[in-house]
Amino acid sequence: MAWSMSFWPFGIDEQKVYNEDLKISFTDENSEVTGIYAKTTEEDRKKELQDRVINKVEDFVKAAKKLKPNTEPKEEDKKTSFNAAKTALENIEENQKLLKKHTTDDFFSVAKETTSKATLKTEIKAIVDNCDT
């Protein structure tokens, strides 16, 4: 799955903020979680989550926020697309915050592994699904 800001109904001048480095691409939530849990220590899993998901999403959200304030379309046909993109961005940010918390607590401890995997899948899936909007 790959998502670019190109579906956002912005003028070409505003789209210059976007570049290929900001494209988010994931396989699916199962593959991402499997890759994270392939690491054996809590610290390595936290780093893998940071590198695999959090950093990619962070860069994208920053660029999207640069575009958002000045680009609300006047045309009715573009407002629907804009509002869908805005809602998707809010959902991505919400799940991004949840993922960030996992790098600072005992989320990846052995005792919590079963519930942590399920939670991580849900949060990554929410980002993947909203990137598909």
Search tags:
133 residues; mainly alpha; two-stranded antiparallel sheet; 5 helices; 2 strands; elongated; disordered N terminus
Topology:
Blueprint: E1 2-3, H1 12-15, E2 24-25, H2 29-37, H3 42-67, H4 76-101, H5 113-131
Antiparallel strand pairs: 1-2
Helix pairs in contact: 2-3, 2-5, 3-4, 4-5
Protein name: Immunodominant membrane protein
Organism: Candidatus Phytoplasma pyri
Strand content is under 5%
The geometry reads as elongated
What's the count of strands? 2
Strand count, sense and barrel status of the largest sheet are: 2 strands, antiparallel
Overall residue-averaged pLDDT value:
80
Straight-line distance between termini: 11 Å
Uncertain regions spanning at least 5 consecutive residues: 1-7
The radius of gyration over CA amounts to 16 Å
| Class of secondary structure makeup | mainly alpha
What is the number of helices?
5
Protein name: Immunodominant membrane protein
Organism: Candidatus Phytoplasma pyri
In short:
This protein is mainly α and 133 residues long. It contains 5 helices and 2 strands. Helix content is 63%, strand content 3%.
Question: Describe it for me?
Answer:
With 133 residues, the protein is mainly α. Helices cover 63% and strands 3% of the residues. It has helices at 12-15, 29-37, 42-67, 76-101, 113-131, and strands at 2-3, 24-25. It has a two-stranded antiparallel sheet with strand order 1-2. α2 crosses α3, α2 (29-37) packs across α5 (113-131) and α3 (42-67) packs antiparallel against α4 (76-101).
